[in-house]
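can u do me a favor
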């Protein structure tokens, strides 16, 4: 096959690695519009289950990723001057730039051409490609060129956030919640190398405006945030990503879905196909799992695999069935993750509901924010039931059974035809960048 990956993010690079490992004769090029080393973001997170999958599919890159990752097993929350610790599962952080460097180097070693400062915005630029993989992010130009077929839809969240870095190295996944005269503002912090951590700040639009962050320059905004989060930062500075005009970067998260994931020889991968709220830390994992699923579907549809035709996965007979299988499998796998992300985002959007609890109870419900049952019960009652469920097996089974069913009922009631629903005001878009 002649394969072109548009977008040099984790999804496109890892897919190219897997395809070359399956068959070194594949002709594969990755086009990245930005210069080498100019990635956005600070560090990304993943969990033990992902690194185990990577070891199965490409042990060499998995080992290198593991060697350059930092680990933690505790969560720490600062609420009202009280520090609470929760012992949980082992998590990992790695610099996004380092992750991309590892994957690009591995891809090149296998014979993949990785071309930086090479922008592809039109399928007509790639007339000879058997397969074009659009891994060019949430604003995918190739997807938008065929938007009528893919049917993309983006639902904005209510809160605003800024993705920052800091010289404070957190040895635990750290949360801090600060009350201001204009409402609550909070952060998530986690280390990703020996010198820096990611530091994400979130709040409601009213709090954002009340603190003057909507009008502040990058430097002014960082100074405000450093004062607000002085306790977890312990005197360390925050690092931003200033725009050319000196303004800070504040965004509203958009949950992207698509009606279809493939169109002829074009297929969507990673954020071009779907997004999940950053508060569950699954974006990079889902992108890499997309790459694994797509490579597996193409391999299993080739000659000798029992698939139709005999011209290989690039042939007219095999490609549509392989892409359909990829989409079907990934949609099914994403259901629970998308549900968790939706409830996690809503938990933060309704944060005052939980901040009246004692810090330990509040932190416990922070860990339960993916539950479809939690929004429908008083927080103190849910906490007591959760504590009992931890000791009583039948109650734990009932809780797991009731939550999804209640969520489906509520979702069905909300899915009333638009003609029968009152018009709702949409949240204002406050982003200064995509």
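np, heres the sequence
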């Amino acid at each position: 096959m002649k394969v072109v990956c548009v977008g040099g993010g984790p999804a496109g690079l890892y897919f190219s690695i897997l395809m070359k490992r399956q068959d070194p004769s594949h002709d594969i090029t990755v086009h990245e519009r930005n210069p080498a080393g100019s990635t956005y973001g600070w560090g990304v997170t993943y969990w033990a289950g992902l690194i185990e999958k990577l070891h199965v599919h490409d042990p060499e890159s998995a080992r290198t990723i593991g060697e350059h990752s930092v680990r933690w097993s505790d969560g720490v929350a600062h609420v009202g001057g009280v520090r609470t610790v929760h012992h949980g599962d082992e998590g990992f952080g790695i610099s996004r730039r380092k992750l991309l460097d590892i994957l690009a180097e591995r891809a090149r070693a296998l014979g993949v051409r990785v071309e930086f400062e090479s922008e592809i915005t039109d399928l007509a630029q790639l007339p000879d490609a058997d397969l074009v993989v659009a891994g060019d992010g949430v604003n995918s130009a190739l997807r938008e060129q065929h938007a009528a077929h893919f049917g993309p839809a983006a639902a904005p969240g209510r809160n605003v956030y800024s993705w920052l870095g800091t010289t404070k190295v957190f040895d635990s996944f750290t949360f801090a919640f600060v009350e201001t005269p204009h409402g609550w503002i909070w952060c998530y912090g986690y280390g990703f190398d020996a010198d820096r951590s990611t530091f994400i700040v979130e709040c409601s639009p009213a709090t954002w405006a009340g603190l003057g962050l909507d009008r502040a320059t990058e430097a002014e905004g960082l100074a405000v945030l450093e004062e607000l989060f002085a306790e977890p930062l312990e005197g360390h500075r925050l690092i931003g990503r200033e725009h050319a005009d000196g303004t800070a970067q504040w965004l509203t998260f958009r949950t992207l879905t698509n009606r279809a994931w493939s169109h002829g020889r074009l297929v969507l991968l990673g954020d071009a196909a779907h997004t999940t709220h950053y508060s569950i830390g699954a974006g990079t994992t889902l992108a890499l799992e997309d790459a694994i699923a797509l490579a597996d579907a193409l391999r299993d549809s080739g000659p000798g695999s029992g698939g139709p035709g005999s011209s290989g996965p690039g042939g007219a007979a095999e490609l549509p069935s392989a892409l359909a299988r990829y989409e079907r499998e990934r949609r099914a796998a994403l259901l629970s993750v998308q549900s968790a992300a939706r409830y996690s985002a809503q938990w933060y959007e309704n944060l005052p509901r939980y901040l009246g609890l004692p810090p330990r109870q509040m932190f416990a419900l922070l860990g339960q924010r993916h539950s479809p049952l939690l929004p429908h019960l008083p927080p103190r009652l849910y906490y007591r039931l959760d504590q009992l469920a931890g000791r009583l097996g039948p109650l734990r089974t009932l809780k797991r059974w009731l939550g999804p069913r209640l969520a489906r009922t509520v979702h069905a009631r909300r899915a009333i035809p638009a003609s029968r629903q009152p018009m709702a005001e949409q949240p204002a878009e406050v982003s200064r960048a995509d």
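Residues 53 and 329 are 16 Å apart (CA to CA). hope that helps!!
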